[in-house]
Amino acid sequence: MAFLSREFIAVPDENKRQILFKFPDHEIRRGSQLIIEPDMQAVFINAGQIVTTLGPGKHKLTEGDIPALGILIDAATGGNAFKTELFFCGTHEYVGQKFGGRIDDIQDPQSQLLVGMRVFGDYSLIVTDPSTLILQLTGTVDCADNGAVTGWFSDQLLKSMRKLIAKQVMTGA
Rounded to an integer, what distance in angstroms lies between the CA atom of residue 111 and that of residue 89? Predict the structure, then answer.
C-alpha cells in the first residue's frame, strides 16, 4: 500500500504545450515524485524568491535529495509537506509567434505628408532562463495560456522597433 500513497506530480497532457504551467497546489507532500518532461524545467518559488530549479527527469522531493526544499517544510503539516509555488517551464522553441502594429507617424520628405509606419513579423521564442521569465512576467500576467506570455514578448518587440525607428529618424540614418 505504500506505493499507492505516493504522489506523482507532472504537467497534465492538455497543458504540455504551455510555455508556463503553474501547479495548482501550494502544499506538496514530502516523498512525492516530480516528473519533468525532456523539454521542461521545474522552478520552486517561496516568498517571491527562487528556491531551486530542476531539470528534466524524475525527482523524489525530500530535503535529503533536494536540500534547498528543506527550508520549505511547514510545521503545520507535521513536516510532511513543502509550502511552495511550483512552475513548469517549456524550454523548446516556440515558432511562428506573430507581432506587429503601429510604430509612429513620419513625414515624407518629398510630399511633406505624414505617413503611418507599421511593422509586422514572426519570431521564435526559446526560454533559456525560466527563473527570470517567472519573476519578471508572472507577477503581472496570467500565464494560463501562451497568448499572455507571447503577447508580452510581442509588446517588447514593438517597443524596441519604435525606439530603433525614432533613433534613426533623429540621426537622419
Answer: 51
The closest alpha carbon to 162, from 108, 107, 121, 101, belongs to 101
Distance set, CA 61 to CA 11, 52, 153, 162 (Å): 16, 12, 33, 47
- 98 burial type by CB count under 10 A (0-12 exposed, 13-18 middle, 19+ buried): exposed
Q: Region of 16 please: left (phi>0), alpha (psi -120 to 50) or beta.
A: alpha
For position 148, what pLDDT does the model report? 83
Helix (H) or strand (E) holding 94: strand 94-107
Residue with cell 503611418: 116
Q: What is the pLDDT of residues 78-124, one digit of tens each?
A: 667 778 889 999 999 999 999 999 888 888 888 989 988 888 999 99
What's the whole-number average pLDDT of the chain? 84
Q: What is the pTM for the complete model shown? A: 0.80
Residue by residue, DSSP assigns 23-68 as: -S-SEEETTPEEEE-TTEEEEEEETTEEEEEE-SEEEE--TTTSGG
Amino acid found at 120: F
